[in-house]
Design brief:
single chain, 115 residues, mainly beta, 7-stranded mixed β-sheet, 4-stranded antiparallel β-sheet, globular
Length: 115
């Protein structure tokens, strides 16, 4: 069972930045498509960004130009750089890995954007 571990969440003021990280301590993520999703209280989980094994990227319209997804295969880690944060970005952020029809999730890290 692939186990994903997220880190980097926290409390930040509007306009600030955070970088989320996600790694798999016992698995190699090189061949996986990796992504970040988020879920705010009372809302459905939504896709934020994803990156293929070939480093093609996709972003939700709501984060384009503000968030950047990247992967470092040498460190077995995927990152989400979040800049110009707004209160609407407040949510629990989940890392996701997909390969061969199998999908794995991390347990989430909380991001709160508030004055």
């Amino acid at each position: 069972q692939l186990h994903l571990v997220e880190s980097g969440g926290g409390l930040v003021q509007p306009g600030g930045s955070l970088r989320l990280s996600c790694t798999a301590p016992a698995f190699t993520l090189d061949s996986y498509s990796l992504g970040w999703f988020r879920q705010a209280p009372g809302k459905e989980r939504e896709g934020v960004a994803c990156i293929s094994k070939d480093r093609g990227t996709y972003y939700a319209d709501s984060v384009k130009g503000r968030f950047t997804i990247s992967r470092d295969n040498a460190k077995n880690t995927v990152y989400l750089q979040m800049d110009s944060l707004i209160p609407e970005d407040t949510a629990t952020y989940y890392c996701n890995a997909v390969l061969g029809g199998f999908t794995y999730w991390g347990q989430g890290t909380q991001v709160t954007v508030s004055p």
